[in-house]
Design goal:
This protein has about 270 residues and is of the alpha+beta class. It is built from six helices and 16 strands. The chain has helices spanning about 10-20, 40-55, 60-70, 140-150, 195-205, 250-260; strands at about 5, 5-10, 25-30, 35, 80-85, 100-110, 120-125, 155-160, 165-170, 175-180, 185-190, 210, 225-230, 230-240, 240-245, 265.
């Protein structure tokens, strides 16, 4: 069931979102015990993006209440998507009326926390307003579709560096990190969505570098991985024809660090 502000969503509300495709969201994973890793950062993202997208305030307590109601009695783990949108928004006059955000909650069963490794294809792309987790996914999904049609699992985005050399940025719906030859972790410095799982891993394993990562230096990396709330830490076993091991011990350390993070309860 999809709910808007805690009640079943109407056809008119869902049609408004589908036709305007304007809003923002976050996806969080509710574990078997009912908690969410990074609940606070997920709520912070929704509040920040609501101000950026609608110029409006969002009550995080209201969001938690809607999520708690939506997952009550359902078998877990669950992936919960919280989408903030304005059903009254006019595509011709998007600034009128002033933002009146509503909260759409949808729920689906979650898969395993650490899925099998990915094979990805690197392709040039930069998302619109990359700092916001917005609902406009056409460009990303077009490239994911092309990559899958070519036999890959997903797509890795690149963009031009200061000297024109291609730099790695992020995956289609995930952040990417690399393990260096000496066992360090490096996150690409680029215009990317600041993922909650990436943030949690930076805090759990301090000392990681954030710097530009060129496509040309990928052969020197020891391993690669993808992160988001649904998959945790997922090995990347190939970027185009370049292969990486899926069993690097640093990846196991990152998974253990993420699994050990306490889940915040969806408390009253």
């Amino acid at each position: 069931m999809a709910t808007v502000d805690g009640v079943p969503a109407s056809t008119a509300q869902l049609a408004a979102l589908a036709l305007t495709n304007y809003g923002h969201f976050t996806t969080l994973r509710v574990e078997e015990g009912g908690g969410v890793r990074g609940l606070g950062p997920h709520l912070d993202r929704l509040v920040r993006d609501c101000a950026a997208v609608f110029g409006a305030a969002l009550d995080p307590g209201r969001v938690v209440a809607y999520v708690r109601e939506a997952v009550a009695g359902l078998p877990r783990p669950l992936n919960v998507r919280v989408t903030v949108f304005d059903p009254a928004l006019d595509i011709g006059r998007p600034a009128e009326p002033a933002g009146d955000p509503h909260v759409l909650v949808t729920v689906r069963p979650a898969g395993g926390l650490f899925p099998p490794p990915l094979r990805v294809s690197a392709r040039p792309y930069r998302r619109d307003v990359p700092s916001v987790k917005h609902v406009a996914l056409f460009g990303q999904l077009t490239l994911r579709r092309a990559a899958r049609s070519a036999g890959f699992d997903d797509v890795l985005f690149t963009g031009p560096g200061p000297d024109g050399e291609p730099l790695v940025s992020e995956g289609c719906t995930w952040n990417v990190g690399f393990v260096t030859a000496d066992g360090g972790v490096v996150w690409p410095e680029a215009a990317v969505l600041p993922g909650v799982t990436m943030r949690l891993l930076k805090e759990a394993r301090p000392g990681a570098l954030v710097r530009p990562v060129s496509v040309a230096e990928l052969p020197a990396m020891r391993a690669a991985f993808a992160t988001n709330a649904a998959i945790g830490v997922r090995a990347v076993r190939a970027v185009d024809g370049l292969r990486f091991p899926a069993d690097d011990p640093v990846l196991a350390e990152l998974r253990a660090a993420y699994a050990a993070l306490p889940a915040e309860p969806l408390a009253d």
